[in-house]
C-alpha cells in the first residue's frame, strides 16, 4: 500500500496556515503517495477542499488513524499524538525548546518526529528552512502594521497644503525578517536605516536602499546568528543606540535566536528618550521581546510612545505563508521517502540534526 501523507486543520488560536497546499499535494501524488486531509484543512488559508485534486478528505479521527506521515504547521495537541499509529512520522514546526512533555508524548507513542526549526543553517537546507520563509512574511507584515499605526505618513508627499516629510524608520536586526521589513519600508517610501550587531549584514542592508546604522559594536557569531554580547559591549551598544533613537519615528525590532529569550535591546530609558508619537513594533514579542516594555500580543502606551507586540504574524497572510511553508515541508519530505517507502537516511546531516524522536528514542537535547 502507498504511504499516506496527512494534515489536519490547525487548531491553535488565530492559526490559519495549512501544511499541505494544493500545489504540494499534487507533487506528493506525483510520487505515488496517498494524500488524506481533514475536511476544511486548507479553507482558512484560502484553499477550499475543491481546490485539491486527487486528494481524499475525511474527519480528523480517520486522518489521525491512517497517517503514515503527519505534516503540521504547529505542534499537534497531545490527544492527537496519543492517537497516531506507532511508527508514524510527525513533521513540522514542533517547538522543541522547553517542550519536554510534548517530546515525551512523541516517544511514548513510538513515533518519529522532525522539527524543522532545528535544521542546520546551510545552503542545502535553505529550501526547507521554515524559519526563514515564515520570517519573511512576519517582517513584511510588521512594517505594514507600523505604517498603519504610525501617526505620520511613511512617504514624502507634496500637496497643495505643503510638503510632508517622510517618516524615519529604523529596523533592528538584519536577518530574514529584518531585511523584509526594510524592503517593505523602502517600498512604502520611508527614510530607512537598518542595524545589526553582525557587521557582515551591512552589504545586505545597503543593497535594499537603506543606510546601515553604525554603533561600533560587533557580535559576529556562528551559524548565521549573533553571539551574546558581553556586559561592556551591551552597555556601549545601548548608549550609542539611545543617542540615535531620538530621531526615529518608527522602530521595528526583529532580533531573536530560536530557543532563547529575545535579547533586550530597547530599555525603558531609551523609550522615554524617543520623540512624542514614536512607535515600536516588537517582532520578537513571542520570545519575550527586544523592548523591556513589550507585552506579547498587547498594545502598550508608555508616555507618548506606542509599543506593539504582535504574535504569529505569518498566520495573518495565510495563503502565501502556507505556500512557502508547504514547499519547505515537501523539500524535506523528499529526504524521508525512497522508492515509495518512508526510509529516512540518518547519515544525512539535515535528517539527523532535525530529528527529535526516532521510533520512540528521544534524540533532542534542549
TrEMBL record:
It catalyses: NAD(+) + NADPH + H(+)(in) = NADH + NADP(+) + H(+)(out). It holds the Pfam family AlaDh_PNT_C. SMART domains: AlaDh_PNT_C, AlaDh_PNT_N. The keyword Glycoprotein does not apply. Keywords: NAD, NADP, Nucleotide-binding, Translocase. Its EC number is 7.1.1.1. The keyword NAD applies. Residues 147-309 form the Alanine dehydrogenase/pyridine nucleotide transhydrogenase NAD(H)-binding domain. It comes from the Bacteria. It is an enzyme of class 7 (translocase). Residues 6-138 form the Alanine dehydrogenase/pyridine nucleotide transhydrogenase N-terminal domain. The transhydrogenation between NADH and NADP is coupled to respiration and ATP hydrolysis and functions as a proton pump across the membrane. PANTHER family: NAD(P) TRANSHYDROGENASE, PROTON-TRANSLOCATING NAD(P)(+) TRANSHYDROGENASE. This is proton-translocating NAD(P)(+) transhydrogenase. It comes from Dyella acidiphila.
Amino acid at each position: 500500500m502507498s504511504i499516506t501523507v496527512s494534515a489536519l486543520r490547525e487548531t491553535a488560536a488565530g492559526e490559519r496556515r495549512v501544511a499541505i497546499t494544493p500545489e504540494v499535494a499534487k507533487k506528493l501524488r506525483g510520487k505515488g503517495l496517498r494524500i488524506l486531509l481533514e475536511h476544511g484543512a486548507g479553507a482558512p488559508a484560502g484553499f477550499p477542499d475543491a481546490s485539491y485534486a486527487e486528494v481524499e478528505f475525511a474527519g480528523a479521527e480517520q486522518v489521525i488513524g491512517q497517517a503514515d506521515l503527519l505534516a503540521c504547521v504547529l505542534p499537534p495537541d497531545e490527544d492527537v499524538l496519543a492517537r497516531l499509529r506507532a511508527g508514524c512520522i510527525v513533521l513540522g514546526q514542533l517547538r522543541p525548546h522547553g517542550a519536554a512533555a510534548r517530546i515525551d508524548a512523541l516517544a511514548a507513542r513510538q513515533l518519529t518526529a522532525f522539527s524543522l526549526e532545528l535544521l542546520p543553517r546551510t545552503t542545502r537546507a535553505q529550501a526547507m528552512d521554515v524559519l526563514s520563509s515564515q520570517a519573511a512574511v512576519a517582517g513584511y507584515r510588521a512594517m505594514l502594521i507600523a505604517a498603519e499605526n504610525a501617526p505620520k505618513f511613511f512617504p514624502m508627499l507634496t500637496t497643495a497644503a505643503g510638503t510632508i516629510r517622510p517618516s524615519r524608520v529604523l529596523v533592528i536586526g538584519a536577518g530574514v525578517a529584518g531585511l523584509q521589513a526594510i524592503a517593505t519600508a523602502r517600498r512604502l517610501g520611508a527614510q530607512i536605516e537598518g542595524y545589526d550587531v553582525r557587521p557582515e549584514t551591512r552589504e545586505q542592508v545597503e543593497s535594499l536602499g537603506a543606510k546601515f546604522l553604525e554603533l561600533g559594536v560587533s557580535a559576529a557569531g556562528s551559524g548565521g546568528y549573533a553571539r551574546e554580547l558581553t556586559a561592556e559591549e551591551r552597555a556601549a551598544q545601548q548608549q550609542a543606540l539611545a543617542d540615535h533613537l531620538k530621531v526615529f519615528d518608527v522602530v521595528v525590532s526583529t532580533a531573536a535566536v530560536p530557543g532563547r529569550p529575545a535579547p533586550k535591546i530597547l530599555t525603558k530609558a531609551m523609550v522615554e528618550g524617543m520623540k512624542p508619537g514614536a512607535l515600536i513594533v516588537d517582532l520578537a514579542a513571542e520570545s519575550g521581546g527586544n523592548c523591556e516594555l513589550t507585552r506579547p500580543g498587547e498594545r502598550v502606551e508608555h508616555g507618548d510612545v506606542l509599543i506593539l507586540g504582535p504574535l504569529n504574524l505569518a498566520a495573518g497572510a495565510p495563503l502565501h505563508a502556507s505556500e512557502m511553508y508547504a514547499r519547505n515541508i515537501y523539500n524535506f519530505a523528499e529526504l524521508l521517502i525512497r522508492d515509495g517507502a518512508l526510509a529516512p537516511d540518518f547519515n544525512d546531516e539535515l535528517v539527523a540534526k532535525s530529528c527529535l524522536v526516532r521510533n520512540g528514542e528521544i534524540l533532542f537535547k534542549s
